[in-house]
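wait is this the right file?? whatever heres the structure
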């Protein structure tokens, strides 16, 4: 299980922006007047003849009779997947914390000029969803329960995650293909997966030492102060796709057990250099003093947010930004300077 933002104990709700503090109150910013304009998408080469579509999910079957024109995303990262497939959602889940996702660099070419209305933050605002009159609701990374699924399905066909993976742990490849099927863009989705996997393969070939190297992915400011992510959290998939190994399960790390972070390489989410230096026990770890630590920056930074999105748009950005730092940390030479990210 992984932590909610701003809460002191781990929870199943894994929000993409990790442990950013809640800004107080839940906001539903969908328009109360006229619905937003139709999704800004062009006809897909693979959509003709693709409908009707039936997709099994953990709560039942999503039946989509025709190509969607008004898509609302209620998952914390689903908007990136929809944008990557050429569709602009008419509504999206509000992101929690201080990161300004409207300017995220990996999606600048896909984001519309006008802000997309939001449909709830920590909880989905069902009324706000209904007001946007969607013909498809996408919530693969939404953590919705069956009651909310039934409410949303009463508005429009609703795509929830399958039962093949733990809540919030659907691999990005599967999420891309599921959403591509729902949009009638299966060919585009497969091409997107192939392209991003190709970028990972290039990074793996250029950094063979990553294979089998253990990495501790740490969230600061959670629980006892540090939280070690396992393979049950999608944020570790970026690292495992590069060949690194992570623990099976996420766990709180007390000050007495900071040794759990002493892997071959340590990636720290939430710390810049000043914050790391101020954490004296953390700074004394061998993995830190021997130059095997990558600081991913604060939760308001692009790198941290990109890791949380874990999408076919943000992952190539992470490959470009983070792999050089990981290579420096994993080269076995303490004299190699590891760049601080943000």
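ok assuming it is, sequence goes like this
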């Amino acid at each position: 299980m992984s932590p909610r933002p701003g809460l002191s104990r781990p929870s199943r709700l894994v929000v993409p922006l990790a442990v950013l503090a809640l800004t107080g109150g839940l906001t539903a910013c969908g328009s109360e007047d006229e619905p937003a304009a139709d999704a800004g998408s062009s006809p897909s080469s693979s959509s003709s003849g693709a409908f009707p579509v039936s997709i099994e999910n953990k709560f039942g079957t999503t039946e989509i009779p025709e190509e969607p024109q008004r898509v609302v995303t209620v998952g914390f990262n689903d908007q990136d997947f929809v944008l990557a497939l050429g569709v602009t959602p008419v509504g999206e889940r509000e992101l929690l914390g201080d990161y300004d996702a409207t300017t995220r660099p990996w999606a600048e070419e896909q984001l519309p000029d006008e802000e997309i209305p939001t449909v709830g933050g920590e909880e989905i605002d069902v009324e706000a969803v209904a007001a946007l009159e969607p013909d498809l609701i996408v919530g693969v990374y939404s953590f919705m329960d069956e009651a909310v699924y039934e409410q949303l399905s009463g508005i429009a066909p609703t795509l929830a995650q399958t039962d093949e993976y733990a809540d919030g742990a659907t691999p990005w490849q599967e999420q891309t293909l599921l959403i591509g099927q729902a949009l009638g863009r299966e060919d585009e989705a497969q091409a997107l997966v192939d392209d991003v996997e190709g970028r990972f393969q290039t990074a793996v070939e250029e950094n063979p030492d990553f294979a089998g190297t253990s990495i501790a992915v740490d969230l600061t400011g959670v629980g006892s102060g540090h939280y070690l992510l396992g393979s049950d959290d999608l944020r570790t998939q970026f690292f495992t796709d590069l060949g690194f190994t992570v623990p099976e399960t996420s766990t709180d790390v007390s000050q007495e057990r900071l040794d759990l972070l002493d892997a071959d390489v340590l990636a720290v989410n939430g710390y810049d250099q000043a914050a790391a230096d101020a954490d004296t026990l953390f700074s004394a770890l061998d993995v830190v003093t021997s130059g095997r630590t990558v600081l991913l920056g604060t939760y308001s930074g692009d790198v941290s947010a990109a890791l949380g999105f874990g999408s076919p748009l943000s992952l190539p950005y992470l490959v470009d930004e983070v792999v050089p730092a990981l290579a420096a940390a994993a080269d076995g030479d303490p004299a190699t300077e590891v760049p601080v990210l943000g």
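The longest strand covers residues 215-220. so i think its the right one actually
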